[in-house]
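Figure 2 data, in text form.
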Amino acid sequence: MRALVASEFYKLFKQGKTYYALAALFLIESVVLISAYFQGATIIDILLDNLKQSFYFEGSLLNGNLLVYLILNSLWFNLPLILMIIVSGMLTSEYKDRTVQAVMLQPVSKWKFMLSKYIVAIIFTLIVVVLVALSSFLLSYGIFGKGDLIVYLNALNFFEQEDAFKRLIWAFFSGAFSMVFFSVASLTLAVFFKETTKTWIVAALFLILSNILLKVDFGYSFINSVLFVKLNDTWQYFFYHVIDWKLIGRNTLMLTIYIGACIALGVYVFDKKDIG
């Protein structure tokens, strides 16, 4: 298994699209920062003109904490999409090049081969989330400095610098579970569809529908609390005034179960199907 995992990492970082995808993420971050640099202060002044007359805010509201939060919001669709393209390609590219058949001629168990891909997909996803978090904090703090964070979720919520930093860290940690779910889901889709273009289209559709259905109230509290599409904004709960740790823990557990189910399904189907 170690050899298979090492081989998958080698193949993943050897392909050029992995680095193009990472560059795309940092480009998105740069666009958000540049836009905020030229227009952010004006927008905040308009929104909070009346509040500034009644409340005292420490430092500039256009600060690193706000920018990290904006980057979080901008990446939470782009990031899973890019991850799904890269991760699904770990299998579809091998179908295209017919290297899957070559590997299966070796004394390698199909389930171990597939499981190694899921392991690498999870580790790679976590690495990307950490890199995005580090770059977001370093660039945002370096350019805009620190200060209080203002967030609008049903109402305006204000967080002091230290509290905001902790909440942002927890948000990245929580969001990593969603990113891992979409990554392993895309790899499972690749098991079924095999072809690169088909897999990318279905994966993108899956992500779009997940984001649309996230806003839909299904009318039943049980469905709203366990359906996977309702769990992917759990990271936002860290920006309410009172953090509902019980809800966050339950959602994280449910996402972990979905991740395990996707992996089990993909490994089982790949192990049973004929590789031709």
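Caption note: The first strand starts at residue 149 and ends at 153.
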